[in-house]
# Entry
Amino acid sequence: PMFLSVFRFELAYWFKRPLTLLFFVLFFLLAFFSTASDSFLNVGGTGQIHRSAPFVLATAVAVLTAIGQVITTAIAGTAVLRDQQIGSQELLFTTRMTRAGYLLGRFCGSFLVMLAIYVALPIGLLVGTMMPWIEADTLGPISVWGAFQPFFTIAVPNVLFVSALLFAVGALTRKLFAVYVTGIVVLVGWQVTQQITSDL
# Structure
């Protein structure tokens, strides 16, 4: 019961905030212009490769998921620190709430909010491929599953890993600085590995 109470509170907290809708719209626009525009994000839809090809959509999801890690840091990484920042953490644990229920509820709530934001990526990619200004010969068959498969196989595992890492750092250190430094290190590590693998 304590887990569900914390879980529902976390969902209500984020879904009532305009910032959550702003993040969703931002992700939608990033994905939309990735497929609807040639000059925004070059993810491989050029030449003989259709911009609606599964490889192109998967690449776009991977790149945008990495870029969106900043938002993951802001939501999942700080979820466990919010009560400490306003000084209500000690008050919470004077109730029957267990530490495990509190942490699990906070994490699951923030993770579900992240998924609700990241689902804007496949939606934006699909809508972008349907724009009337896109030349028909640059498009292949448009598949809903072709956009949502990389969301489930690339975005969800990545968001889960980064969210769990940042949440754990916040819970262990109780320092916002440590959470943001970890987020930066993960992002830089991703860029370095991308550079190394691109040279193979």
Q: What stands out?
A: The first helix runs from residue 2 to 15. The chain has a mean pLDDT of 80.
